Amino acid sequence: MSDEKPMTIEAKLGLLTYKNDHQSHIKIMQADACLKCEKKPCVTACPAKVYEWDVAQKKIITSYENCIECGAARMMCPYNNIDWVPPRGGFGVAYKLG
Amino acid sequence: MADDKFDSIVVGAGPAGVAAAITMARAGLNVALLERGEYAGAKNVQGAVLYSKMLADVIPEFWKDCPLQRAITDERIFIMTDKSAIQVGYKSIEYAETTPANSYTIIRVEFDKWFSKKAEDLGVTLVTGVTVRDLIRENGVIVGVKTSEGDELRADVVIACDGVNSILAQKAGLHREWKATEVALGVKEVLALPREKIEDRFCLEGDQGSTTEMLGDITKGMLGYAFMYTNKDSIALGIGCAVDDFQRTNIKPYELLEELKRHPMIRKYIAGAQPLEYSAHLIPEGGYKSMPPLFTDGMLIAGDAAQMINPTHREGSNLAMAAGQMAAETVIEAKKQGVYSAAVLSAYKKKLEVSFVLKDMKDHKDIEDEVRKRREMLTIYPQLINRAAHEHFRVDGEPKRVHQKRIMKMFLKERGLLNMALDAWAMRQAIG
Lengths: 98, 432
Description:
heterodimer; A: alpha+beta; Alpha-Beta Plaits; two-stranded antiparallel sheet; 4 helices; 6 strands; B: alpha/beta; FAD/NAD(P)-binding domain; D-Amino Acid Oxidase, Chain A, domain 2; seven-stranded mixed beta sheet; 16 helices; globular
């Protein structure tokens, strides 16, 4: 194991089964709040790399289809700016082992 | 579905919800159990250790057909630095000589499917793929739920077992959002390994199992710990830390897990193992002081939704099952009177208070606060005791009394007598 390369988050998420909804269950409420947010903990602490800072557009892009539904983003955001609800019935990640 | 009325609606088919549904169905109540996953367990993540007592209270002789992994005979704690570990543990085959054993490892999704099937066999209407988004109130009293698709379902009483991200507790006005200090974020991998290898590496016979909790440098000063549990032919390896610490440090949880997998004390255990699944989950670790009110007119809350976790003892699903059962018993009694007011449902809180659930939660209510106040303990002590052990075992031609003096000096220099006394006092007070 020590000789192997670290497993990327993309490879970890690749192990999972999702049923994707066409609508997102995550909303950034005020785009302006992210401009003054220095540390952007959502980008680093989300365990599924859902949140990415788009330098050109100066906003957070959410890849909601990656979400593994821990819900941490709500508490992680220093501006309480992430509106996260569980996906609609039957959608989202489906753990096989849990 | 809109025309149906049930005696009770349980939201969430986890340990609390299924235990509640089973208990009510046995008493002849007409129960709907709503689950947002495609199947029970689809959204659920746990280490996972199952404690027999609380499950046997709900399903006597569960061991006859429950999908169990290994009977835990070995409980270990590793206190780690980046290059070393103090390894302590208690191993007893006595744990595996009784049926049931004290605890077992389980694969949560398999367990939840089995547990919810037991509820269905008793007449519970299990509806999967339904996300509950709101409550229905009449004259201020909760009388049902609304789904994400706009369907309504009515009942005399709702039991909210919708987990750490409970929507219902908030909709009922029983709690605001958790604070970042009240929840921990855990990430985990299940790694496939042939059972002979697991038994050799962990010194286990047959279906005996081991658990390892790990503290120290691996959390990089964050409040949390890691775990490694043996299943039959897989290992569950995970790490969890307080959400405010992830917020403060900008550490990526999946990178923390990768570092753990490469740690020199861990990597040989999992060498050659194939990752089967990656998962993440919030653990409500705010404890007693973070618990919302547990009942209101027409609704009760149980399990993670109510912060029922004892992190110092790695317990949660057992508290959930016991609380689910007590919530159900309260509803059964309320049905006899035909009244589901907060006053009647307050019997639930009294049941929890007499049980281990609230006693344990009260006894451990200050532990996380105390550790947060003295956060440096998390890194200083693992370092100090590892260095002390290193000194103790090292042979360098110097007499042992010189080694002992060095150890004493190191503790006094790095932490000081007063601080050590304060640490000990704080922990003694916190653990009760």
